[in-house]
Specification:
The protein is α/β, with parallel strands linked by helices and 312 residues long. The protein has helices at 2-16, 63-79, 88-98, 122-131, 151-163, 197-208, 224-230, 244-247, 263-274, 277-294, 297-311; strands spanning 22-24, 40-44, 80-85, 105-107, 137-142, 168-173, 186-190, 212-215, 236-239, 254-257. Strand 2, helix 2 (63-79) and strand 3 form a beta-alpha-beta unit.
Length: 312
């Protein structure tokens, strides 16, 4: 009933607006039962069906709910001329669960959701990377859901690094975990409101000052913070799951670790890269290059625009 009401509201708007395409970016409910002349495009991180029994909130749901999810998503997909996903994993799930024709699917990672100076140059980011002192190694964790994002693993990594005699610090953004006792090498910043200029400025500075982002997430689709880190020449250490490998490429803009990787594996990688600082700097600039070539909204927008034009 809700999806049908959404469709009615959208149809009313379309009757008084001149639009060439209907683009849905926040789920399928608005278009599942929509009747219109314009081609419909879905642009999503993933379909909900892929999250069933993956995210805790969508585990142990009844068969009726599963059927409802399937029917609504199937109706929306059948109406669409184009499906854009932010990762190969999401695209593969669309084919697996709904047998979508691959010719209807296109993968475009999202851009960084942080304001950056227009026309940012390679030299500017190179100066940011060069301004980072070799020691201590500064790690940054950014996530609101401490447990789901693997915050405890990040803490375990920085603790073990210091126990191994490798000087490292961890800055935690987005949450206020209870870490007792709190070591001197861990700094908890908490939530930063990027919608405010002072919050965005603080976020930019904290990321730019860091050597590496660490996000050993347990459940995710394609976290945007990884892209934001790359925008500042910060490589990312994260988990090889879901859509993350579409964003983070091995030793190009970071590294993905197995879900059950030992803390020592993270430590060994960090030490190997940071002990050869020119090698680290090369990885940092390669990370920015990934942002510049495929993980920014200018590139994303141009790619999407061409796909939209091809529908008309």
């Amino acid at each position: 009933l809700i999806s049908r009401d959404y469709a009615y509201q959208v149809a009313r708007k379309l009757s008084i607006l001149k639009s060439d395409i209907v683009l849905a970016t926040e789920g399928v409910q608005t278009v599942a039962y929509l009747k219109c002349q314009q081609p419909i495009v879905l642009w999503l991180d993933t379909l909900t069906i892929a999250l069933v029994d993956y995210y805790p909130a969508l585990s142990n749901i009844c068969q009726e709910t599963r059927k409802s999810i399937y029917n609504i998503e199937k109706a929306a997909i059948d109406k669409c001329k184009l499906l854009i996903f932010t990762s190969d994993w999401a695209a593969e799930n669309a084919v697996k669960h709904y047998q979508v024709n691959e010719s209807k699917i296109y993968v475009i990672p999202r851009g960084a959701n942080i304001e950056l100076k227009p026309g940012r140059t390679f030299e500017e980011v190179e100066n940011i990377v060069k301004s980072r002192k070799e020691k201590p190694c500064k790690l940054i964790f950014s996530g609101i859901d401490w447990d789901r994002k693997g915050g405890d693993i990040a803490v375990g990594v920085v603790k073990q690094l210091n126990e191994m005699g490798f000087n490292a610090e961890l800055t935690i953004i987005g949450c206020q975990p209870q870490i007792k006792p709190l070591p001197d090498f861990i700094k908890i910043v908490g939530y930063i409101d990027k919608s405010k200029p002072e919050g965005e400025s603080k976020m930019r500075q904290l990321v730019a000052d860091s050597h590496l982002m660490i996000l050993p997430t347990r459940e995710d689709c394609a976290p945007n913070v990884l892209i934001e880190a790359n925008a500042f020449g910060v490589p990312c250490l994260t988990t090889d799951l879901a859509g993350i490998p579409t964003v983070i490429k091995e030793d190009i803009n970071g590294k993905t670790f197995a879900f059950d990787a030992e803390i020592k594996e993270y430590c060994d990688y960090i030490i190997s890269r940071m002990s050869d600082y020119p090698r680290y700097q090369k990885l940092a600039m390669s990370s920015f290059n990934e942002y510049q070539q495929r993980l920014n909204w200018d590139v994303v927008g141009k790619t999407a625009k061409q796909l939209f034009m091809d529908l008309l």
